[in-house]
Specification:
Strand content: 5-15%
Distance between the termini: 28 Å
Number of helices: 12
CATH topology of one domain: Phosphorylase Kinase, domain 1
Radius of gyration: 21 Å
Shape: globular
Oligomer: single chain
């Protein structure tokens, strides 16, 4: 099985006996054995969340409320990154801890890690009061973009901005899952793939993993015009955050290539919001990109859901709504028949690998 440099290094660590421990259990009321033996019958357990693909979450009560993530013996995500996600999360948490007290957005917008032991498969954090987003609101979306860009400032690129990894309270966001957050140099790289994949950036990740599907659901209830207006407001929020981020990059000596990369994204969005025709073109591009990326990701990890099926259905609807010469350049397919054939194949795979 092919592995990149990061995956090879993490796999070697995983196969070693080397310990990886963060933080301390002082003042929590727990010892390591308590956390190792937590199950549904434990006196400390108030709530269990078993929907996670790589771990099970327990809400614990001792000297306060805590979030315990217990690593699954076998990850439900069957690709290499899924198997290594718990170790990767601990490595990212370590880097966040180094900077969390100095960056307000990370202090307020990122869960605080209390203790972790990789070999024992335990990760203890503060308990966060909040809910996964139910309504698309530009305030929490802007907050998420800003927190994610601040993660990039410390050299962490978050790939998995899905609804299940975001908690919102009073339109303020807390991010808490970093299994797919990888290290990079923001002054010379676009993301953790270096400069090889310019399509991946902070708002794109939020759109691909969550927003574009929610906008489709919104459209089915409230109509296309209202959906496009919300999409425009999201892009306006993105422009504001990216302009601030580019100023930071320039002030800190980022390469011309990186500065131009963000400048080009901003200009594409500015053009997109200039009139309704350009807005719809940009929307179609983002929908096609987002759905195809997420479908491939779900099929690769054999971790499909009803949302995977909904994305496939939306792609089919777009081929009915728009002329093929509009869609073809955006999906890298010459023939509509081949695209529809692949959508049928994706649908069969999504049914086969359903998790919930």
């Amino acid at each position: 099985m092919y592995m990149n440099k990061r995956q090879r290094e993490m796999s070697l660590f995983d196969q070693s006996n080397q310990k990886y421990i963060l933080g301390t259990l002082s003042n929590t009321g727990f010892n390591v054995e308590d956390l190792e033996n937590i199950d549904g019958k434990s006196q400390y357990v108030c709530q269990i969340v078993e929907s996670g693909l790589t771990g099970v979450i327990y809400k614990l009560k001792s000297n306060g409320f805590y979030n315990l993530k217990r690593k699954r013996k076998t990850s439900k995500v069957k690709n290499v990154d899924g198997q290594l996600s718990f170790l990767n999360e601990l490595m990212c948490r370590s880097k966040i801890l180094e900077h969390q007290e100095h960056l307000i957005s990370l202090k307020n917008g990122i869960i605080k890690t209390i203790y972790a032991d990789y070999r024992k498969g335990i990760l203890l954090s503060e308990w966060i009061d909040g809910e996964h987003p139910e309504v698309l609101d530009v305030d929490w979306i802007q907050d998420t973009i800003n927190i994610t860009l601040d993660l990039q400032k410390i050299g962490l690129f978050e790939w998995d901005l899905s609804r299940g990894n975001i908690l919102v309270k009073d339109n303020k966001v807390k991010l808490f899952d970093f299994g797919y957050c990888y290290q990079f140099d923001p002054l010379v790289d676009y993301n953790s793939e270096g400069v090889n994949e310019p399509r991946f950036h902070a708002l794109e990740r939020l759109e691909t993993r969550y927003l574009m599907l929610e906008l489709y659901k919104n459209q089915r209830i409230k109509g296309k015009a209202e959906m496009l207006q919300l999409y425009k407001e999201i892009k306006m929020a993105g422009i504001k955050s990216y302009l601030d981020h580019n100023k930071y990059l320039e002030a800190n000596g980022a390469s011309t290539q990186v500065l131009e990369h963000f400048h080009n994204i901003i200009e594409e969005w500015r053009k997109g919001i200039s009139n309704i025709q350009e807005l719809e073109k940009l929307y179609i591009k983002d929908v096609l990109r987002s759905h195809l990326l997420d479908i491939h990701d779900d099929l690769s990890g054999k971790s499909c859901t009803q949302n995977t099926l909904l994305r496939i259905m939306h792609l089919k609807e777009l081929t009915d709504e728009y002329q093929w010469n509009i869609i073809a350049p955006l999906v890298d397919y010459n023939k509509k028949e081949k695209f529809l054939e692949d959508l049928h194949s994706f649908h069969e795979g999504a049914l086969k690998y359903q998790h919930s």
